[in-house]
C-alpha cells in the first residue's frame, strides 16, 4: 500500500510503512526524555507547557481532523478541568494529583456532554459559533461569580501541597521547586505518551473510521447506518475529555486558575497548534461537509435523524415487502410525489421510469428517508416506518445507491465497503479495537469487491476510480449492508453505452443471486426491458402505468410520454 493511501486512514495497512509511525513516535519520546538534562529548569517548564498543550491538541484534532467539526470554544473544557482541580484542592483539601485528574475529567465530561448535546445538532459555521457562545457563557459565569471562582484574583494551587504517584513523590523541603519541575515534566510526559496511545487506538478503531466517514460524507455515512449526530456527540465528549486533562495538568505548573483560561485568545493558540502539528488537520484533509445529494434541490437536506423513531406494526392485510399508501411530497407548488400507492413484492426486480421531473428520485428519497413525506404511509415488512430515521430504515433492510455517485472519496474502495460492513454488524461502536484486525470484515469486503469486479481497485481511493467503477462501488456499498430492499438510482448514468450492459449484468447477477428486491430508476429503455420483472411508469409525481415489460411496450400513452411516439410498436421502432 502506498504511503498516500495509508495517510487517508485506510482500514488495512501492511508492510514496513505500517511500522514507521511507531518508530518515529519512539524516537520522539526518547528525545523528549533526555531533554531536561540538557536544558535549564525554566526551559523544562516551557517543555512541560508544550506537552500539556499537545494533549489538548490531541483532543481538538479528533474533533477537527477526524470528525470535521471546527470548535471555537474548546478552551471551555480546558478551563473546566482547571477549575475542577482548583475547587478540589481548595475546598476538599485534596493532595493527590491522581485524585485531581479523576475529578477534573469527571467535571470536564459533564460540561462537554452537556455542551455537545446542544452543539452537534448543528454543523458548519453554526456549530462553530455555538461552541464559541457557550464558552463565553462559561467565562462570564467564572468572572461574575467571584465568591466561588475568585474572579480575576483566581484560585491559587500551590505545587508543594500536591503529591504524585499516590504520595510516593512529594515536594517539601529545600530545592522543592527544582525537584517539582523535573518530576512533573516526566509525569506529564508519561501522561502525554499514554494519551497518544489511547488516541491512536481510537482513531484506528472502527469507531474512528466511522468518524472519518462522517467527515468525508455525512450523507453517505447516514445511509450506511451510522447515526451521525450520536457519533459526533461521542467524539465531542472524548475531545473535551482530552482537553480537560490538559487543563488539569496545567494548574499545578501555573499555580493560579483565573477566568482568562476560558477566554477566546487561548482558543486561537490551541487551533494554531493543531493546524501546525497534526497530519489529519484541516490543512491536510479538508472536511467534505454535505456531499451533493439527490433530488429536486441540494438545498433540501435530509432530516432523517431529527425525527422521532416510529416503527408501528401495520394492522392491514399487507403481506408484501413494501407498500406506500397515498404518499405525498411537495416542494412549494411542485408535486414531486403525488398520492403514490405502490406495492412491491419480495424478490422483484422493478424498473421505475418516466421523463425528467416525473418524481422517480423523489420517490426513492422519501422511501429511504432522505426526504420526509408530507403525508401518507410507508409500510415495510408489515411495519409502519413512515417516521423512522435514515439509520432505522437502513437497519430494517432498506438501502440505496445515488444518482450522483455518493462515496467516501478519501477512503479506498476496500474501506468504503468495509465501512458498510462495520456499520451493519454494529462494530462501529467499538472504540477499543483496531479495525485492521477484523479479519471477518476484511474477508467479506474483499468478497464483495470481487463480486462487483472491483478486486483490482481494492487499494485505490474512491475519488480516483473511473465513472463506471464508481457507480459499481456505490451499489456495492449499499449491497454490503445486506438489504432486503435495494433502490438503485440510475446506476448506468454517465457511463458509455458499451459499459452499461456490463454494469447491469453485474448488478443483476448479484441482486438476483442473493434474492434481493431491487427498484432501479432508469432512462435507458433497452436496459429497462431487458432486466425488469415489472415496470412502473411515473409522470408528474404520480404513477401513470405499471406492468410487465411486454405490457408496457404496448402502452401507447407511455410511449408518447417517454419517447414522443405512439402506436403498439413504438418502442420497437425506436430500437
Fold blueprint:
Blueprint: H1 3-7, H2 20-34, H3 41-66, H4 75-92, H5 97-119, H6 124-144, H7 146-149, E1 155-156, H8 176-203, H9 206-216, H10 218-222, H11 228-254, E2 256-257, H12 264-277, E3 312-313, E4 322-331, E5 334-344, E6 349-353, H13 360-367, E7 375-380, E8 383-384, H14 390-396, E9 398-400, H15 413-424, H16 439-451, H17 467-479, E10 485-489, H18 497-514, E11 517-521, H19 525-531, E12 534-539, E13 542-547, H20 549-553, H21 556-563, H22 570-574
Parallel strand pairs: 6-11, 6-12, 9-10, 10-11
Antiparallel strand pairs: 1-2, 3-8, 4-5, 4-7, 7-8, 12-13
Helix pairs in contact: 3-8, 3-11, 3-12, 4-5, 4-11, 5-11, 9-11, 15-16, 15-17, 17-18
User: The biggest beta sheet, please?
Assistant: 6 strands, mixed
How many distinct helices?
22
CATH class of the largest domain: Mainly Alpha
User: What spatial order of strands do you see in the largest sheet?
Assistant: 9-10-11-6-12-13
Second CATH tier, the architecture of the largest domain: Orthogonal Bundle
What proportion of the residues form beta strands (DSSP E)? 5-15%
Return residue spans where pLDDT drops below 50 for at least 5 consecutive residues: 1-9, 264-318
Q: What is the first-to-last residue Cα distance? A: 47 Å
**Alpha carbon gyration radius:** 29 Å
Could you estimate the helical fraction of the residues in percent?
A: 40-55%
